[in-house]
Amino acid sequence: MSQSPALLECVPNFSEGRDAAVIDRIAKAIDAVDGVRLLDVDPGSSTHRTVVTFVGEPQAVLEGAFRGMAVAAELIDMRRHHGEHPRMGATDVCPLVPISGINMAEVAALARELGERVGRELGIPVYLYGAAAAKPERRQLDAVRAGEYEGLPARVADPAWRPDFGPARFNARSGATAIGARDFLVAYNVNLNTRSSRRAFAVAYDIREQGRLKREGNPLTGPIARDAAGDEVWIPGRLKGVKAVGWFIPEYGVAQVSMNITDLGSTALHEAFEACRDAARDRGMRATGSELVGLVPLAAMLAAGRHYLCQQQRSLGVPESEVVQMAVKSMGLDELGPFDPQKKIIEYRMQAAAPVGLTGLSLRDFSAAVAAEDPAPGGGSVAATLGALAAALGTMVANVSANKRGWDDRWAEFSAWAEVGQQARSRLLALVDEDSQAFDAVLAANRLPAGNDMQRDVRAAAVAEAFHKAVAVPLQVMRETMALAELLLTMAEVGAPDAASDALVGALCLRAAVRGAGANVRINAGQTVMTPQLQTMVDEATRLEAAAEAIESTMAATVAKRLSI
To answer: Residue 381 belongs to a domain with what CATH number?
Structure first.
């Protein structure tokens, strides 16, 4: 199995959120690098800060980051910069994040490579943080940025805080830059029905992992409590892996709890919202909504959507888009402006830049592709589509049953079945494209040169391998589709009576999918040398076809009995 190509994300934060021309020049400098995919540019006026997100092959990402930082150094003058967000440089922070095919140690080495170049070529003091930090006390970004831009003259002159790269002297125009390696971070703000930044800070202290300093006597004005060693005593907050502050945003007219969720495994997105909501309520306020700065992983949105669906005792097996929408509305992610999942969810942004497969076509365009002169897509892709439709129909009956009036005590039962159907539907949709790709591989193998013995041997091996794949894919379609039999039978027997006929149509799709895919197994196996492995696959296909025929008969009898027809 080939290793996934290395994919790196970079999320530089630039200290400019108001001048569209400057932001555009920075973004264009990054986007101009071959191999870089610009995913998001998110400016904020009150914070006077723009978060840019892009991905690509590691060296391309380093080049994009450097070019963006070079333009920022040219156009941004920190001597005139003021905003709500902590900052210390024109490029305030530049984290590198592993996405796939690369580990954190490798990303840390890349951060050091970038830091060295920035210090050498741009003359900007660079501090390494996160997994790239050279010293333990520099791992945390807030420790590196302590004192912000105004404190830099003293900090760079302090031997203990000498920059990791670049000159150890104050750069008045560009300030300093923190470059690091870290896991995925979600920048998330919760809106409060107050204009008081002090009260927003109180909520931030309640929920952030660090919590607040303990005080003797009066919890607000008393002396800071210290332990036996003389160290300050902290009262931990509610959420692990969360950093938070409070601020007032004039452009929105509300105060916010501004969070960095550094560990989504410890604190989910919806858990952060709920914690702020509870803490705000305890202090006489209300969390009215929230906003995401930059991008968010799909898993975080799905987890939030499922949480709120469960609270309403609604099926979790609804389409992914509905789960996402439930998260958006429940957390008020669209309160301050439109929330477009295609622009804010990282996987969707990456898919948008990828070539469109068969499942990305409209039904009209897909049927046109099948009807064209090319042999692919053909019966194999259509068989997989019928399998996906069988899954969709079983899922629909489960969702209708979960939402049926008077069946509230059974919503979890039907929700579980709907989830089974949705998962099967996703797998079968993937096989729609895989079948077409497998046939294309057969055509490509047959076009290989065969002018001499070596070329003929290479061609023969490639053709055999391609035909093996062309048998394996439709066989997998048969397996995945037959796995739906229990779902469809159960829905016909105990699902909403008025949807029983939909379950029967699903069974008919199942039968057609299995028979069609079985025909593909046989025709493709018959065009190459019949090995024992191929014969085993053909035999399995025969058994699955017989089982599908039995399912259709059973389903027809079940539905007829239930509907008394």
So the answer is: 1.20.120.680
The count of domains in the chain is 3
Which of 181, 210, 245 is the last residue in one of the domains? Answer: 181
Q: How far is CA 350 from CA 27, 339, 356, 370, 484, in A?
A: 17, 17, 12, 27, 31
Q: For residues 353 and 296, what is the distance between their CA atoms, to the nearest angstrom?
A: 17
The per-residue DSSP string of 115-138 comes to HHHIIIII---EEEEETT-SSGGG
Domain around 344: 186-352
DSSP label of 2? P
**pLDDT, tens digit (0-9, with 9 covering 90-100), for 276-327:** 999 999 999 999 999 998 889 899 999 999 999 999 999 999 999 999 999 9
Q: What whole-number distance in Å separates Cα of residue 219 and Cα of residue 140?
A: 27
Contact between residue 521 and residue 471 where contact means Cβ atoms under 8 Å apart:
yes
The continuous run of DSSP H or E covering 390 comes out as: helix 379-402
Whole-number Cα distances in Å, 167 to 78, 319, 320, 438: 17, 54, 50, 56
Shortest CA distance to 111 belongs to which of 99, 123, 93, 124? 93
Could you count the other beta carbons within 10 Å of the beta carbon of residue 451? 8
Closest CA to 393 of 484, 315, 314, 324: 484
Mean pLDDT of 501-515: 95
Catalytic residues, which ones?
85, 435
Q: Are 16 and 49 in contact (CB under 8 A)?
A: yes
| pTM above threshold 0.90 | no
* 508 domain-assigned: yes
Based on the fold, state whether residues 226 and 304 are members of the same structural domain: yes
Give the separation between CA 275 and CA 203, rounded to whole angstroms. 9
Q: What are phi and psi of 455, to 5 degrees?
A: -65, -40
For residue 377, whether the previous peptide bond is cis, meaning omega lies within 30 degrees of 0, is yes
Write the CA distances from 71 to 15, 60, 64, 207, integer angstroms: 12, 17, 11, 37
Please give the structure tokens belonging to residue 474: 């439709």
The predicted structure's pLDDT at residue 354: 67
Q: What is each CA distance from 381 to 452, 474, 484, 520, in whole angstroms? A: 36, 9, 18, 10
